[in-house]
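Sanity check. The docking grid for flavin-adenine dinucleotide depends on where the pocket ends up, so I'm generating a full predicted complex first rather than guessing from homology. Inputs follow.
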Amino acid sequence: MSASAIKPTAEPDARPKIAVVGGGLAGLAAAIAAADGGAQVTLYERAPRLGGATWSFQRNGRWFDNGQHVFMRCCTEYRAFLDRLGATDQVIEQSRLSVPVSRPGRRRARISRTGAPAPLHLARSLMRYSPLSVTDRLRAVRTALALRRLDPDDPDTDEMSFGGWLRFRGESDRAIASLWDLICLPTVNLRADDASLSLAVRVFRTGLLDDTDSADLGWTRVPLSALHGDAAARVITDQGGSIQLLAQVEAVDHGPSLTADGERVDADAVILAVPHDAVDELLPPDTVARQAELADLGISPIVNVHFVFDRQIMDVPFTAALDSPVQFVFDRTEAAHWAGDESGETTDAPRGEEQVVAVSQSAAFDEIGDRPAEMIERYQSALADLFPLSAEAEVLDAVVTREHRATFAGRPGTRRLRSGPNAAVAGLFLAGAWTDTGWPATMEGAVRSGNQAARMALDFCRGANASTLSWEDQRERTIA
Ligand SMILES: Cc1cc2nc3c(=O)[nH]c(=O)nc-3n(C[C@H](O)[C@H](O)[C@H](O)COP(=O)(O)OP(=O)(O)OC[C@H]3O[C@@H](n4cnc5c(N)ncnc54)[C@H](O)[C@@H]3O)c2cc1C
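Predicted complex below; grid placement will be based on this.
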């Protein structure tokens, strides 16, 4: 018997090869959906870890996230993604929306819902919302009803600012700062005056006004890296996929193909899931709608200031703040003390009585350049005003995380800059929170875009025609 006869013949892998560039939530969702759909997936990520804009680090034995992340019950694809990761029990989900609103020296207010049908579910809370005058409360109810009548997909709506529209309806500066910004800032990562009306309508309608339970909030009990990146890596490799870390893709081209570390790799389809300002340099000119203008989507920063206090200073899991430099503050003790074992179990026993809190500041244009020591001093003093117990407490550790390019800036007129998933290279698809999902830059938008790109890439590999549309055709379809 010849040597070649006894050598086992390797079965050629009949699965379509799909390459995913970018290991943020869009790329992870795309990779998992493509692998679940029967593709052989290779994921390229230039960083040493997965998770993209959601990551964690350890310092003095505690875990800290790059920034607090929150989702709503209406984030259906993100929640399904968590389910696919086996991570649903690692998040907390409110059974009913309840947002405490703290003010120095004042009784805490609350935005909450009842079980009544939408939009009545918010009426009681709005009518009792003490930071606003009674006149402002009545006006807010009328404004909420008017918001429900706006179409987030109407291109004219995107040309207007949310703040401009609110003022046109007679909303006062106080109402904008104390109510509308409270929701717009953490969701659109811009103040109402700077935000696209269309994105605000998406958030308020889908998140708050159209369904009773859609705004119930959720957040992670474990470090973000464990929740997303580590769990997704397990799922992708279990599905036979390959993950290349520290793999900077230098170009994506016809074929489709990509070049990583100087080597050209051919694939049956490529999903490009990098931030908007990284797209142009990777693609041949005019591969994507308005490619040269993508940088005009802009960026909006987020700052988090993390404190370890030697005792409990706040008695709620999180709170918004008014009449204070603090926007939101979260109790992160459980995640900080995550045991990090394979099962992802958290430890129930906080170390001593210490409490770890994160002050989260969206659209932090004015302070992102401040020195960390300045920020720590500012927020330590602000926390003492909000929570008298913190004035007595000792700060055991404090650290600032700054995300200069946290999200694109969803300003008026930016919708037209957001590309759909199609490109003018056959077999290439786009994903990312910045693509035209209709959502602001959120985890939900990222996962939706990844799922959609994976569906289209699988269709393309199977020879279905939907994905051979050029971006112009796709755009025309979308507008029609
Ligand atoms: C501090 C902070 C707080 C936030 N809070 C919330 C929140 O409360 N709720 C919410 O829903 N959203 C929040 N967001 C937004 C949310 O995290 C993002 O919208 C989402 O994670 C973006 O995912 P993405 O995959 O589109 O992009 P990214 O996460 O940016 O992933 C893109 C990936 O591509 C990689 N990459 C880039 N170029 C290359 C290349 N050439 N080769 C290989 N890899 C490359 C990058 O390294 C990165 O990992 C927050 C973001 C930040 C930063």
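Relevant for the grid: Residues 21-27, 44-47, 52-54, 66-67, 69-71, 186, 248-249, 273-275, 278, 282, 302, 403, 406-407, 432-433, 441-444, 446 surround flavin-adenine dinucleotide (CB under 6 Å).
Also worth noting: The chain has three domains: 14-53+223-297+413-479, 112-213, 300-407.
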